[in-house]
Every structure is written in structure tokens, then in C-alpha cells.
Amino acid sequence: MPTRLCRAAALTAALILTSTAYGEVIKPIKSSRAEIAGAIFSKPGVSVEHGPDGTSSTDAPVHTSADGAFQTGMYKSGPFREEIAASPGFPYEEFLYFVSGGVRLTSSDGSSMTVRAGESVTIPKGWSGVFETKGYTKIYVIYDAAAASRK
């Protein structure tokens, strides 16, 4: 019985030492309800930009892949309107889930949609049109293949 116990202990120790010898353990990253409700914007690593018209936006990245091509996080913004020209168009793929507020997207062909809190939209790379909002908070996922080549 003690021999089996010693073997089990030795095997467990070997597994622990082997896993730490090969680098850091990769773990999932969770955003809590409190963070999604706004607490995330007071954490370290958050950036705030102030526009010339007095509006501000706040970006709270949660995860960026090692190559920089994939990023998740939360973002909040005051009112603004942005025209995205056909060339080059929207610079990356983005999934947006609106926690509060919303956005009106008018594509270059004149078609438009409104996305409100509790809804999501995916904006493909190259999209062109008008992005208008009275303010929002979103959870985002970005894929930017060009970011990987810049690293």
C-alpha cells in the first residue's frame, strides 16, 4: 500500500513539474456580471480618449492573442457619427454585442439597420457606410489578420 501511494505521489509531482517546466498554463478568461455592468472600466489597462467635441470613449481590452490578430473586450462611447469610406472600408472583422445603447448602421447602398441593447451585429472587413450612435456600451470581438503581419 505505501508503495502505491509513493508512486502516485511521484507521478503527481512529475506531472506538476513537467507542466510548469513547459511554460505557463493557459486558462479561460471570464468577465463577471459586475464587470459587464461597468466595473471593468475601472480596472488597470483601460484607455480613455476624449474627442474634440467633449465626448469620450473607453476601451477595456480583456484578451489579445499573441500575434495581435484577435482581441476581445468592452468599449463604451458617447454620441458620435463616423463615415467609413469605401476605400479601404472598415479595417477589420468585428462582432459587437450591445449591453446598453445602440447604433444605426447605414451601408453605402443606403440600406440601414438599428442594433439595440441585447442585440448583436457583425461588421465585415471592408464595410463602408455611416456609423451613428447616441452612446453605447458593447462587448466586442475583433479579428485583424493585418495585425499579425505587423508583429
TrEMBL record:
This is Putative cupin superfamily protein. Gene3D superfamilies: Jelly Rolls. The keyword Amino-acid biosynthesis does not apply. Keywords: Signal. Residues 1-23 form the signal peptide. Residues 90-134 form the (S)-ureidoglycine aminohydrolase cupin domain. The keyword Transcription regulation does not apply. SUPFAM superfamilies: RmlC-like cupins. InterPro entries: RmlC-like_jellyroll, RmlC_Cupin_sf, UGlyAH_Cupin_dom.
